[in-house]
Amino acid sequence: MPLFPIFLDLNNAPVLLVGGGTVALRKAEKLLPYGPKITVVAPEITPELAALPGLNICRRAFAESDLQGPPALVIAATDDTSLNHSISALCRAQRIPVNVVDDLAACGFVFPALVQRGRLSVGISTGGASPTAAVWLKERIEALLPPHLAAALDRLEALRPTLKAQIPDEPARAARFRAAFERELAVPPEPDTQTPAGHVALVGAGCGKADLITVRGLRLLRQCTALVYDDLIDDSLLDELPADARTIYMGKRSGHHAAPQAEINAKLIELARAGHRVVRLKGGDPFVFGRGGEEALALRQAGIDFEVVPGISSAIAIPGEAGIPVTHRAMSREVHIITAHTKAEETPDYRRYAALEGTLVFLMGLQRLEKIAADLQAGGMAGDTPAAVISGGNAAHRAAVRAPLSGIAAAARQAGVEAPAVIVVGPTAALDLYADFQ
User: Fold this and answer.
1) Is the pLDDT of residue 255 over 60?
2) What range does the domain containing 169 cover?
3) Which residue in 239, 252, 285, 375 is the catalytic one?
């Protein structure tokens, strides 16, 4: 059953937000542009949430008396499921609209994906079926909107009283409004010669859940005006964006290239020259086979100010998630990170890596796993050398397969491992440090 869209006037309206963590922070940031008076109730409140302007902070537990008034909206954003359900039941009994985070069944309303341009607000909901689809629609709508729409709406609002006074006939007045609207959209504003230079942050999102991003990366995400992002990003990171931020998907991984690298570089330069604070959000680390170096060079050559925020690379995170340390005392004192996918070498020879000591980590190599294993053995590596193939993080199909090097390709094939996957070869690949705790 679809959800009915409704637009509320929240200016100076009381809103109760129960919870003091990062989820509560995201909800507050989405609401604040619409002018509500938000009361936050929680025993512990993050400094970032407490620092938001205009909030009434109450550092205590929720009480039923908090619903007196009553609030126009209530958001239950605690990590206590039973408390969230209790708040939902109390609100429903009093017919107070309530949102319970990550619990559609307990919600009286949901937060839509938002597109905002001045007085324009577009809300998108899939009824909980697919947040990814809502984000996709948001991006398409944003791409359709002219950049001067907000200013055009302001001018049309100012024109409205005059036309109402001059043209009493409603159909004729509607026709004039339509003509004025089309004229506004057809004539873009004069170029702003004072547009400040923008800035680009190449941010590594880490490899896996949203909370693996760095504090600096998260801060930049919450302050950006434009986001260019990749595949394998936790979708909940998109909730951290300001309501009016542009989002541009330019995913890029083996076999699924949404945009050539040159087009990505050009888009970053275009957005920065338009004065945007851009975040280029990349899975893992920007400089570990993430082509962040190419983007940095392009920005530098274009005279664009940029910074790099490192992230946790899949070369370390995915093996670690499976209980495999890439270095371990008395087993592996060095680690080598190798890309198995390169246009410079259509049929790469992996034999040269057989003489390396320590741990070999191959990225983007699942399709060439059989050749990697055969070449390493042909180069002198023993067939009984431990090996592992792991698909984790935000991959759709998670798997962790361990086998001797001579049988790893067959074992991965039998297990149905799908890309993206990380290949680990060396003594530590036999370890599973979580085994005794599962």
Assistant:
1) no
2) 152-186
3) 252
